[in-house]
């Protein structure tokens, strides 16, 4: 389905639609200092089925012997949250019974579905020691037919994620979701998508082949990347692509690059987001608030 080749041939390219610089960072709770690279307000611009990406770039936290920093109990409905920990640790628990410590290299894939309540804090150990902290939180939309699916939790350890060498040993690709060169990522998804954590060595380049049916976005987390030999994007940029095309050529700058590649078949459904909910209509948003207030999403024990 999805593969990579050093020979692009005459296949059409994934053409850049725009390169956007994320706005200044803001705090989510007191533990996550993030730049919103896109939100559900931007979904119509080509990120569908992905509806939000918050990136907490590397930041040093001092030891904290008091209450761990983070975000207390709050609800979600209608989508999935994907937390990718690069440095530091996040302690999670939710009303579906899911929870645990998300360590560096791990991924948490939480399905809010019909409704969930959860909390996210720096782990007690990380709070005590302090250190560098870096993470991504991605929101993945659910199709209308699955928005009322039961809440669920996938805990994906670093060891479960295939860490694959790129052709010619120019870098690596951690296969979180989707497929690459016949390998499958561990995340179970409701619709067809790829979530690839790509690292390119200094000055190195590679060519990816992706389905023409997929929307494509690149979040540049570190370094600088040259795209299709004619455009460049630096850390903190989001690159969106036009529909269609199958070939993507990337080359890292002199310091290498870390890229989160997101591709997927668009849902092509209305996206109505409000606060912690992503539904298909304002009536459904109002219903979500009502259900949460009446305790329908469960409680943290």
In short:
This protein has 301 residues and is mostly beta strands. The chain contains two helices and 25 strands. It starts with a strand and ends in an 8-residue tail after the last helix.
How does this structure look, described?
The protein has 301 residues and is mainly β. Helix content is 6%, strand content 52%. It contains 2 helices and 25 strands. The protein has helices at 124-129, 282-293; strands spanning 3-4, 16-21, 26-28, 32-38, 50-61, 70-76, 79-87, 90-94, 99-102, 107-111, 116-122, 131-141, 152-156, 163-165, 171-177, 179-180, 183-184, 193-200, 205-209, 215-227, 231-234, 237-241, 247-264, 272-274, 277-279. The strands form 5 sheets. Strands 1, 2, 14, 15, 18, 19, 20, 21, 22 and 23 form a 10-stranded antiparallel sheet that branches. The protein has a 7-stranded antiparallel sheet with strand order 3-4-5-12-7-10-13. A 4-stranded antiparallel sheet has the order 6-11-8-9. It is globular and about 55 Å long. The termini are far apart.
Q: What distinguishing features does this structure have?
A:
globular, mainly beta, 7-stranded antiparallel beta sheet
């Amino acid at each position: 389905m999805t593969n990579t080749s050093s020979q692009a041939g005459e296949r059409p390219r994934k053409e850049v639609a725009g390169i956007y610089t994320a706005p200044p960072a803001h705090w989510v709770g007191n533990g996550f200092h993030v730049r919103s690279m896109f939100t559900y307000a931007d979904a119509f611009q080509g990120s569908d089925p992905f509806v939000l990406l918050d990136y907490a770039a590397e930041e040093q936290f001092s030891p904290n012997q008091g209450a761990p920093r983070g975000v207390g109990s709050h609800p979600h409905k209608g989508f999935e949250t994907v937390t990718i920990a690069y440095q530091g640790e996040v302690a999670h628990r939710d009303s579906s019974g899911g929870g645990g410590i998300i360590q560096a290299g791990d991924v948490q894939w939480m399905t809010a579905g019909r409704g969930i309540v959860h909390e996210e804090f720096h782990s007690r150990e990380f709070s005590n020691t302090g250190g560098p902290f870096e993470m991504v939180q991605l929101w993945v939309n659910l199709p209308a037919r699955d928005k009322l699916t039961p809440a669920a939790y996938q805990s994906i350890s670093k060891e479960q994620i295939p860490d694959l060498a790129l052709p010619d040993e120019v870098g690596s690709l951690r296969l979180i979701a989707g497929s690459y060169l016949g390998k499958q990522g561990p995340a179970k998804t409701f619709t067809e998508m790829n979530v690839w954590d790509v690292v390119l060595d200094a000055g190195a380049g590679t060519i990816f082949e992706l389905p023409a049916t997929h929307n494509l976005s690149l979040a540049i987390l570190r370094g600088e990347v040259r795209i299709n030999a004619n455009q460049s994007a630096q850390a903190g940029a989001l690159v969106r692509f036009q529909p269609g095309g199958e070939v993507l050529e990337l080359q890292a700058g002199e310091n290498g690059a870390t890229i989160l590649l997101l591709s997927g078949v668009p849902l092509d459904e209305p996206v109505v987001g409000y606060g912690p909910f992503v539904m298909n209509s304002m009536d459904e948003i109002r219903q979500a608030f009502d259900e949460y207030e009446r305790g329908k999403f469960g409680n943290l024990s």
